[in-house]
Write a structure and sequence with these properties.
Elements lengths: L1 H10 L4 H15 L11 H22 L7
Helix pairs in contact: 1-2, 2-3
Amino acid sequence: ADASAMQALARGDATPEQQQRALAWIIGKAAAVGEFEYRTDARDHAFASGRRFVGLQVQKMIALNTGAFR
């Protein structure tokens, strides 16, 4: 279902539910925002930190008050 939602999103014909599911997958699974990012290996830690950063930026854009820019 996640893959179908992502594919529908990419095509531009996702239902509202598929859009929400795709976004939840991006933030929760791909970016792993809710996971603890620390790793003992420096390279693994840097990767996890960068991955989480992307998800946090997506969340920031979602929460941004666009009306303040008008």
